[in-house]
Design goal:
Layout: H1 2-21, E1 33-38, E2 44-48, E3 55-56, E4 60-61, E5 63-69, E6 72-81, E7 86-96, E8 101-111, H2 118-129
Antiparallel strand pairs: 1-2, 2-5, 3-4, 5-6, 6-7, 7-8
C-alpha cells in the first residue's frame, strides 16, 4: 500500500515536471519514467523503466505505462516480443489519488508496433534497452 502511495506521488511529480517543461524525456535518460506520448487532452503517458523484465503477479513479465487523469491513475500493462515485433495490452488498473486500487481488468488486445502510440513507444524503448536486433 505504501508503495502505491509513493508511486502516485512520484507519478504526480513526474507528470507536473513533464508538462511544465514541455519536452519529452530522452530515451537515453536515466530517469525512472520516460514520457512515451500524450493523449488528445495533452495528458502524458509515462513508461516505468523499472518495470523492465519484472514479473507482475497474474500477468507475467510486462511493461507498465501510467497516466494521471481526473484525479485517477491508470496503469496499462503490456507484453512485448521484440523478435516477433508483437505487442499486446494484457491489463488495466485504475487507482484513486489515495493509492487505492479501484479496478483491475485482464484483456488481450494486439497493438500495432512501430507507431506513435504510447504502448508502441514503450516497446521501442524496451527493445532498444535490451539490445534487440533491428530496433
Amino acid at each position: 500500500m505504501n508503495y502505491v502511495k509513493r508511486l502516485i506521488g512520484v507519478l504526480s511529480l513526474a507528470a507536473v515536471l513533464t508538462s511544465s517543461l514541455g519536452s519529452v524525456v530522452s530515451a537515453q535518460s536515466k530517469e525512472k519514467f520516460v514520457n512515451v506520448g500524450y493523449d488528445s487532452d495533452g495528458d502524458a503517458y509515462l513508461f516505468d523503466r523499472t518495470s523492465l523484465r519484472k514479473m507482475e503477479p497474474g500477468f507475467g513479465s510486462v511493461l507498465k505505462i501510467y497516466q494521471m487523469k481526473n484525479n485517477l491513475m491508470t496503469e496499462i500493462l503490456a507484453k512485448a516480443s521484440c523478435g516477433d515485433e508483437r505487442l499486446s495490452i494484457v491489463g488495466f488498473r485504475t487507482y484513486s489519488q489515495d493509492g487505492v486500487k479501484l479496478t483491475e481488468d485482464k484483456v488481450r488486445q494486439q497493438v500495432t508496433v512501430r507507431t506513435d502510440s504510447p504502448a508502441s513507444q514503450a516497446m521501442t524503448y524496451y527493445c532498444h534497452s535490451i539490445g534487440a536486433r533491428s530496433w
